[in-house]
Design goal:
Elements: H1 14-33, E1 37-38, E2 44-46, H2 47-54, H3 59-64, E3 67-69, E4 75-78, H4 83-92, E5 102-111, E6 123-132, H5 137-153, E7 159-165, H6 169-183, H7 192-200, H8 211-217, H9 229-244, E8 250-251, E9 263-271, E10 279-285, H10 289-292, E11 300-306, H11 307-316, E12 329-333, H12 336-341, H13 343-351, E13 356-357, H14 365-375, E14 379-383, H15 385-390, E15 392-397, E16 403-407, H16 410-418
Amino acid sequence: MKYNIPRGTFDILPEDSYKWQFLQDSFRKFAICFGYQEITTPIFEVSELFERSSGESSDVVQKEMYRFCDKKGREFALRPEGTAPVVRSYVENNLDKLSKRSKLFYLGPMFRYDRPQAGRYRQFYQYGIEFIGSNNPYYDAEVIAISMLWLNSLGLNKLRLEINSVGCPDCAVLYDKALQEYYRPFLGKLCPDCQNRFNTNPRRLLDCKVPSCIELRDDAPSQLNYLDEPCEKHFEAVCNYLQAMKIKYIINPRIVRGLDYYTNTAFEIVYEGLGAQNSLAGGGRYNGLIEQIGGKSVPAIGFAGGFERLLIALEEEKINYAEKPKPDAYLVCLGENVRLEVLTYLNDLRIKGLIVDYDPDKNSMKAQFKAADASGAKYAIIIGEDELANKTINLKNLQTGEQIRVAMNAEDTKQRIRAKI
């Protein structure tokens, strides 16, 4: 029987895996430069964690979570997003006792039952930042800066940073009432989901992708007109910090984000060449979330982005951001006795960190050099009976043709290859 991959998932094949590895390593190094440390959480958690954090009326909880029960009847869910698990770990492991401020980042797969399309999958891979421990608007700007500067460092030019403030819970009450007053005459024109959101979460009306709902959104009241003085000053300070960092942005009062835990700053980084699925990264503050899931009242802010859309954007701009790994050297063996005796030396080279290719099925010198050229190796390490007897090798630069005889010593071979002889 032939088995097919589940719908909405994909294999990362060897011809592409180096691109994923490069982006993950690049983000990891970038986050570390800003003082962030990596955290890894399980890919499944108790379902209630996401119900409490994302909001029971959110699409994530209502439609998209992969739920399952274990043999004891306990309900779990594959993680649909990364913030709630990180916050759960922060609370459970008392990270606040280690430092007043926790600077964390993560990488890994998330899962949502969604309609598959370009840049949107049921298993998708995210990178994310979480800063926990201060309400200082500088950290809002820092988190935004990390996402924007990293994407810029990859060479992307068609990026647009959009920011907004969704206010505090008190602001939200006033704004929800204003939205209900505006939308009430149009209830019959709203899609079924938005008719439900009208009572449960009016702000989600602004995030609907149905064309008829989008048309109504244009004249809806702005959240910025319903901010209280502290929220207004916080947002103004965030904007000032971004300007000081020379990070360009536009204010978009329609940004509300899809999860209920956001407060104050909300932002998205849009890539202008991706059509409908054009958000590369997004996030915001979630000052009430930690207390909501059993911790102390601690302010926090974070963001997440998807590697799938990022890869599409890089391809769109034809950016050569990663090179496929090629061997440092190819081992050419002449003689059956040599093939056995040099295996320890071959392993030593690999232990030293050299990528050395070797094919025991190739016997003739001609076949081995042909394979060396095809592999893209920079050097050939040639060992025959004479070299073996004298514990030496012939090191040949396959680009220049230069060849020297040196001692059969793995460290020396490594230094010569790294120094390009």
